[in-house]
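Quick one - inputs below.
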Amino acid sequence: MDNFKKKFVEEAVDLIDGLEKTLLELEENPEDEAIVQKVFRVMHTLKGNSGMFGFEMIDSFTHEMETVYDMIRNHKLSVSREILDLTLASVDHLKILLDEDNYNDPDVQANHKMLLSKVAQIIQADSETSVASSPLPTANNNLNGDSDKGSSYYILFEPNGNIFSNGTNPLYLLDELHTLGEAKVYAHLNRVPPLKDIDESLCYTYWEAILYTESSVNDINDVFIFVEDESNIEIQKIMDGNVLANEQFVSELDNLSSIQKDIGFNSVQRIAVNISKSSTTQQNVQVKGKDRVVAKDATISSIRVAADKLDMLMNLVSELVTTQARLSLFAEESAVPGLVPIAENVQKLSRQLRDIAFSIVLIPIENMLTRFQRLVRDLSSELGKDVVFATEGAETELDKTIIESLADPLMHILRNSLDHGIEDAAQREKAGKPKQGKITLKAFYSGANVMIQISDDGAGIDPETITQKAIAKGIISADRKLSKREVLELVFLPGFSTATKVTDVSGRGVGMDVVKRKIADIRGEVEIDSEKGVGTTITIKLPLTLSIIDGLLVKVEDTHFIIPLSVVDKIYAVEHEKIAKTFNNVVVLDGKQVPFFYVRREFGHTENTEKFEQVIVVNFEEKSVGLVVDTVIGEYQAVLKPLGKHYKNQDMISGATILGDGTVALVMDTNKIIKLFANHKDFAMEGEE
Amino acid sequence: MAKTILIVDDSESIREVVSFTLENEGYNVLIANDGTDALKFLDGTHIDLIITDLHMPEMDGITLIRQVRKMEQYMRIPILFLTTESQAAKKMEAKEAGATGWIIKPFVPAKLIAALNKVLR
Amino acid sequence: MNQDNLSRINSYLSFKLGDEEFAAHVGKVLNILEMTKITEVPKAPVYMKGVINLRGTVLPVIDTRIKFGMTPTEYTTNTCIIVLDIDVDGETIQVGALVDAVQAVLEIEKGKIMPPPSIGSKYKSEFIEGVANIDEKFIMILDMDAVFSTEDVTDLLNKTEETQSTTEIEEVS
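Output:
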């Protein structure tokens, strides 16, 4: 019986976590019936199961909550601030109730009674409250997760009458449009003369198309490059996102095209704008994949796996990838017929295996964001500050175990931002800042690391205050000169809290030193950057422990390097002369000027005598930068190995991997490397800063 | 059924690179080293696409294109010409002569295939 | 090997850096590798030679000579890498020590080990556990944890060198 109980608790935890997220969604979209239904279902399930396993308090509690949401879905009650607050409080309470030890705790009992009475009040409240009662405040929290990268365009293609005479087939061009994304094409035959007058060597048809694509306008232009001189081509952007995903848009468009000859860009845009404005359920044309459409409570079947089994799985996968690299090398070098295709197959299979194994162990950060949103919501309201919480890179994946350990430090950092960072409305106005404060959480990859940054546009940290405090505490002597960076580092010392009043929120004896230690426990590092009056940014760097990254294997002199494919844009072979003889480290590639760094030179090797160099163009902070290497060997699945504590002070190389022939290749962190190369004139070897 | 492409270029290396690329993509390749040579193939043989250089001895590309367009069987087939970027004027001339599209030298195989896909399916 | 057994063992591995002879407790030594291609990690401290592949893990290799203030190791057939277990902040990590030659495993009783000279010694005493006199030679028994720690210690030399003052110190090679 105990086992089943444990199982119930596990399931309940999952349900309740999902519930919290759903409630925050409900806050954004209070009219959305699908979401209400979701909440109701969770309450219903919890009620049904809890009794069976002896959780009577949960049983009775969720019974009441179920009633509330039943009333909401039957339009006898509407979602209000009060109800949401209460439901969220219930969620917290339910989590506590899942631990039986808490049942006899008098505080818990008291809370239980209080919540129940509140619920009872709501249920008895009259249903005379109309839909617009206690309106919810404007959206405080924005989940800018996976933003839609594409846009929708209107395209008019009117080929010249004698376009056939030089062998063009306009249909091929329309086909090509389809390859760029999703397209709907309308052919217009209204200019086709009556049968007897038709000259079959002429083209009388013209087309209008709506295209949704992530490609650029240039790419769309390219489709028509051969015919643009003798055709009328019009390409205009309608709006961001995929208009074609909106059924209403498509049907209105269909209607329009059947009524009148041309649709015309103006009509298209008019339809799109109208639809995006009018939506009682706040459904934007920007809806993409995973949102509303999929959220019909798809019950994805899942199973639970013990963590250590996952560890074993990952280790085996890593070994497999390494051994497979040796097999591939061997197959190439040996002349055994038929071995190469087999090795290639093994490579393909192990790649797929690796992808799936990773998807099991690595979880997008998004999953832990819910609790942060709640924190910001609750706390900002408590403190009387208007703060919006934005996230970027929610799809960035991290080892599940690391994510759990990150939660506390990140919560603390957020609390600090809310409490000490963001100023209250009056101060902000005085400082000329927008009334609404902003806290952003950004997650992204850099080399073999995951970076998580929390920035706020608050008051920043005053180095003077810190210095004074440190002197007062005797940590540094009064005449010691410290760089800004060193001053900020002081914040990580134990017992160092500059808050003059210890608020209940962040002054709970959990200082930045604890944060730093907890992050060090998961082999990460944390840094602070701040500017007084502007804001503070805290950056956490975590190693991708179990990782196999897709990389580009290159060689510089005798050493092999891996450049993560995720940052590689393009590779060019350029004559050595061109590289060696530039004046300002810029080379022209595909018509664009690209700054580059000559890796050999930077690492202290002699000039290359080869005729050609390989220039790898990588993405660096949204710009393109070239890295010049000797040879490009090819794609390589690199099983990452840490360099070890002896190399902890350098961050150009974020890890290493063992190649098929047993030698070691170094994984480049291109962001750090480029920053370093760019500074090399100023780079002081002895104790920088 | 595999499509047939006629390559016309007086440079052996270009002919080899192009024919290698196309054969890899599954096309049948016919090779001619200038205009006059090319015309020999245009004797009723089924051809789906012509790729030609512009500068060739004996008969240059533009003349070839004009001739091809005069033949009833080959009036509508797509013709791509190879050109270096600076020859904008030549491009106009070639198009007026009846060319469908162009490929800019130097080119990587991918560019060749991309241009091909615009005119041949 | 647990700590008890370890302390009872009196075996030391002796190795040479130039003309000087040092020794390390065998409890710290994992194995000895022949010289192999070392992948250099750019912009690292000068004594960090690079990394090698040790059965699937990446092992950092330190040029011991440079650590001891000598000229960098010149490879001969005798050059090898001693793989050591080092304690750092309560964690045990592995490191490779590049040495000119490995000599022998010596039995040295505790009684035969003298404390390191406090003055006039060429090397800072915190790195030396003791000195033993074996066959007329003085062998410095090293505290490997200290020598190969991850701290950015670049030299083990005593700043005030008085190389001529005592007869216990051998000449620099």
